[in-house]
Write a structure and sequence with these properties.
Length: about 400
């Protein structure tokens, strides 16, 4: 038996009717195969009723693993639903010998800092983890610490996922599973399932490369031996007028993966950088905070949001995965796209979902509009912004 994925969605506010219809649509695509996993994304008025949504899905699909995550919008097929109530259900029937394991993640303060509990076991039993889908509530689980923990426990394993992007009323969970409310993080570990990760960033590098000469713990104190804020200000002032206008829509800074970028002086591929927004600046010390780990010696470069680059990069990345799949059939895909993309970036709706379908499909596609995306770059897991990350599952 091969991997089979089914998908169903609804834009009605009735959990009893709309969710049941969506679940039946997903079940119909699975045929008579048992459901090994049902992943549910809920948005709008349905988000506070995530528990009731899970009850309906459990009754209709009887999945071995069931998870729900709230979002400010969903992806279903070639559509992105970002207003009003919506639910999408992504159901998987596993192939012989394949498995999916669900673990709950929590954070605990220890003497050495923060420890992440509930990580999947290391691959020391002869079975290889092919991928991890990670859903996170960042208010309860520090994302960068969690990703470094995954890197240590499961090195080179692609981690793909997103940050819950809709906060309902205070007593409603962002992440939940049957019998639990308000999970901090949920990890789905796949074995025996071929998964191709895809990360497409939505920013373009501009200006010169700069070297961090003092910094750490998410802040850059000096660039090229001078206060970071002064160097960035001079760099911005020296940009051409059209680039300066783009900077006004949000100052982004890319941190080179692995330290420095090869072939200095040439514009590197976008994936060589992890792009972050500047969180804060201290005019007295000259330091800038980027909300991500940074080390002395790393290369950084200013970036701007750019729809043309983002669109081209997503197409190129998906075509590479299509080529990597070879003759294998694509069973389905999960997508996590930034809440700063969509109409705000591209000027029209459904860009990412439609592009994924055009390049890979038609395939059962579900996903969420995220407040942060998770995906590998250079073999390491990172948190992103303005990106689209995709997990492509092969049959």
């Amino acid at each position: 038996m091969t991997v089979v994925v089914g998908c169903g969605s609804s834009a009605t506010s009735s959990a009893a009717r709309g969710v049941a219809e969506a679940a039946r649509s997903a079940a119909a695509e699975l045929g008579d195969r048992p459901c090994g996993l049902a992943l549910v994304f809920v948005a709008g008025d349905l988000a506070p009723a995530a528990d009731a949504v899970l009850d309906v899905v459990a009754e209709e699909l009887d999945p071995a693993q069931l998870v729900a995550c709230t979002a400010s919008g969903i992806l279903s097929g070639a559509e992105e639903l970002t207003t009003g109530p919506a639910v999408v259900i992504w159901a998987m029937a596993l192939s012989d010998g394949a498995s999916v394991e669900l673990t709950e993640l929590t954070a605990e303060q220890v003497d050495a800092g923060i420890a992440v509990r509930g990580l999947p076991d290391a691959d020391d039993d002869g079975e290889r983890t092919s991928a991890v889908i990670l859903l996170v509530d960042p208010a309860q689980l520090p994302l960068d610490v969690t990703l470094r923990a995954f890197e240590e426990r499961l090195p080179t394993v692609p981690v793909i996922g997103g940050v819950a992007s809709l906060i309902p009323r205070p007593d409603a969970p962002l992440l939940c599973r049957p019998g639990s409310r308000g999970d901090a993080g949920l990890a789905l570990r796949f074995r025996g399932v071929d998964v191709l990760p895809c990360v497409s960033q939505g920013a373009r590098p501009i200006g010169p490369e700069l070297t961090v000469t003092a910094g750490g713990a998410g802040a850059i104190h000096q660039l090229a031996g001078r206060p970071a804020i002064d160097v960035l200000r001079e760099t911005i002032n020296g940009l051409p007028d059209d680039e300066g206008v783009r900077i006004q829509h949000g100052l982004l800074l890319g941190v080179a993966v692995g330290g420095t970028v090869e072939n200095a002086g040439d514009a590197p591929p976008p994936d060589d950088y992890i792009v972050r927004g500047l969180a804060a600046a201290d005019t007295e010390t000259g330091a800038v905070a980027i909300g991500a780990p940074v080390e002395v010696g790393q290369t950084v470069r200013l970036h701007v949001r750019d729809p043309e680059t983002a669109s081209r990069d997503l197409v190129d990345a998906l075509r590479l995965r299509r080529e990597a799949a070879g003759s294998a059939r694509i069973a389905g895909a999960l997508a996590f796209t930034c809440n700063g993309r969509g109409r705000e970036m591209f000027g029209f709706d459904d860009h990412d979902a439609d592009t994924i379908q055009h390049e890979l499909g038609p395939v059962p596609l579900a996903g969420m509009v995220s407040a942060g995306e998770i995906g590998p770059v250079g073999g390491r897991p990172f948190a992103h912004s303005f990106t689209a990350t995709v997990a492509v599952f092969l049959a």
